[in-house]
Specification:
This protein is an all-alpha fold. Helices cover 59% and strands 0% of the residues. The longest helix has 17 residues, at 79-95. The two termini are 14 Å apart.
Amino acid sequence: MLIKRIYDVLFNTFGPQYWWPGDTLLEIAIGAILTQNTAWANVEKAINNLKKEGLLSIDKLLAIDNETLKKLIRPAGFYNQKSERLKEFLIWLKEKGGCLTNINESTEDLRKELLSIKGIGPETADSILLYAMNRPVFVVDAYTKRVLSRHNIIDRKADYHEVQNLFVNNLPRDLNLYKEYHALLVKLGKTYCKKNQPLCEACPLTEVFLID
């Protein structure tokens, strides 16, 4: 099975990725929102600002004024929009009881609710579900699409759900597998399958696609 074979090669090449980084599940969820349209290094700066102020809690973040929040998360870019998204998410989470892993609703219903929050799209919603809420939902990002399209596994115009279903239909529904596979594709994209000047000859997936 091609999808599983790709995973095996990537895992043997890179090893476990220990992704998504964060000291708490709330921090992971916040990171998923802040990482939209920016590099992770910038997200780390924004999260560190929140940590220095001792604000990584639902109540404390909801209590501070918007201008202060914007200033603290400024390194992550688009801070006007992201401050609004963050607060709307936190309001929703507080209404659910405040514990990311103790919400008695189906994954499908939670996904719909997350997508109803202004500014949260499929990738962000699924990242929160997978990494912060421990729900087995496969996350698709730009790295995933780039790797698969370059190897003609998907069409370049394939939408999010088409790509997601490719993994869901060809893998066991396993939380840790989904986490690791997504992280490994990110690692591959950053290391070899770069947006510009990809290192195709050195890519570990060459062994998969050179098999007769």
